[in-house]
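Data deposition worksheet. Section B asks for the primary sequence of the deposited chain exactly as it was used as input, without tags or linkers unless they were present during the calculation. Section C holds the resulting structure in token form. Section D is free text for depositor observations; keep each observation to a single sentence. Incomplete worksheets are returned to the depositor.
Section A, Depositor: J.P.
Section B:
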Amino acid sequence: MGDPKAVVLLSGGLDSTTVLALARSEGFESYALSFRYGQRHTVELEAAARVAAVLGARRHVIADIDLRVFGGSALTDDAISVPHHDSVDELGAGIPVTYVPARNTIFLSFALAWAETLGASDVFIGVNALDYSGYPDCRPEYIEAYERMANLATKAGVEGDQQLKIHMPLVALTKAQTIARGLELGVDYSLTHSCYDPVDGRACGTCDSCLLRIRGFAELGMTDPVMAAV
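Section C:
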């Protein structure tokens, strides 16, 4: 019957790349799903394509949606600037302006649709509830609630052909633990891109996302390979 199929949400960043490697290590035939959603850091899609190829995704799809029509986020609205900091210690406790309204709900809905057409019962997402930017749609209780809803929402679910499981293998890991797990699986993090506000395609090193991954590598006594190349 072959390996079970799974849809893996792949931004091209550190977390989603690790999740793709984990899905492969668990024996899933992975179908990588990325989004061109009007984000200012579209360079991440080039990273996603590299990662999908190297980690052996069966197929990589980039879905086009345009969240700029709503704005409301520094990632999709040119009128809102991406915050920059001198240190990760300066990151605030509130929900930052880089939060994109309902982004994970939208992404998971696309993943659910593709999983149903593939006959897949598994979706992987790289949400994290420890070293993250405070986004409400990265919390485990949200993902668990979405999973319950999803199993009521599809023809395959109602007819008993699919019992969807949303995997969030990084949810309780620090960034350093995530990196360590990825390195065990042979992930080349120089292929990834996490920066929210790149300059000429290069990581800025001072946005929330850059600072969190820099700290993660530093806690392992390493230098982020993306920053080393800047």
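Section D:
Strands lie at 5-9, 29-36, 59-64, 122-124, 165-167.
Residues 103-118 form the longest helix (16 residues).
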